[in-house]
Amino acid sequence: MLYNMRYATGTGFKFHLPVPFGGFFRRTDKNLDALIRFFRDQKADVLGLVEIDTGSYRSRWHNQAEVIARKLNKHTFSRTKYSYASWWSRLPMMRRQGNACISGYSVIRERTHFLRKGVKRLVMELELEDVVIFIVHLALSRKTREAQLNDLAKLAQNARKPYLIAGDFNAFAGKVELSRFMEELKLSSANISDLPTFPSRNPRWQLDFILHSPEIEVTNFSVANDVRLSDHLPLICDFEVRRPAARKSA
User: Which of 10, 11, 111, 117 has the highest CB neighbour number within 10 Å of its CB?
Assistant: First the structure.
């Protein structure tokens, strides 16, 4: 599952204060509990989570990824999204904003990368037994995203196994914007119907993607249209990794 969970601040009138960005300053306890119930019901083996709070006053100083992983009995890998050189990493609440990958499988390797351009530059790489998963959250500027996609392509080309790239690409032009990137890497989108994912109350744009290399076969995909726990909708994907055919002996 991929989900931009908006730091568990929720969406809709009851989750917002009557000031711009007021929702980002609310406590997150109740909505986080609802998210955990949703994750438990879905029984996802791996969760790619964009926009998690790693321990600000909103989450009562708890790392949301660690709380989710503990209650689901899974491994967690979370990082703040801003590089040490970014001035955003010096601001009290902003420096606690991050992304996470939560896995029910044993993790072989975890790596953190920062793309060269943009404020949102974090790429998380999680290697499991049969697959590598990249979690991304790209910039709002299209020009910056183009540069980020070039860097991301180089990272993906170094993957040692079949891989998925999942995240909030902020691609308001949808898959068209990613066409060159996908063609270069021979990627396919799990969302073959191009279902919109944002905003959750009235979806119009496909901002969130699960892209996969040719060795991966998607067996089921859905966008959970009835979930209003964030301003994005969650993407749910079942897949299998194709094994290479054995060579016949002479």
Answer: 10
Q: Domains along the chain?
A: 2-241 (3.60.10.10)
Contact of 138 with 168, CB cutoff 8 Å:
yes
Parallel, antiparallel or unpaired: strands 122-127 and 109-114: antiparallel
Pairing of strands 132-137, 122-127: antiparallel
Residue 58, C-beta contacts closer than 8 angstroms, at least 6 positions apart: 7, 8, 9, 24, 25, 26, 27, 28, 93
**Which two three-digit tokens encode residue 106?**
């044993």
pLDDT means per 10 residues, the chain with 250 residues, are 94 50 72 97 97 91 95 94 73 80 95 92 96 97 96 96 98 95 98 97 96 98 96 97 58
Give the CA distances from residue 20 to residues 24, 25, 57, 136, in Å, rounded to whole numbers and listed in that order.
9, 10, 19, 26
Q: Give Cβ neighbours of residue 76 (< 8 Å, ≥ 6 apart).
A: 65, 66, 68, 69, 100, 101, 102, 103
Separation CA 4–CA 130 (nearest Å)? 25
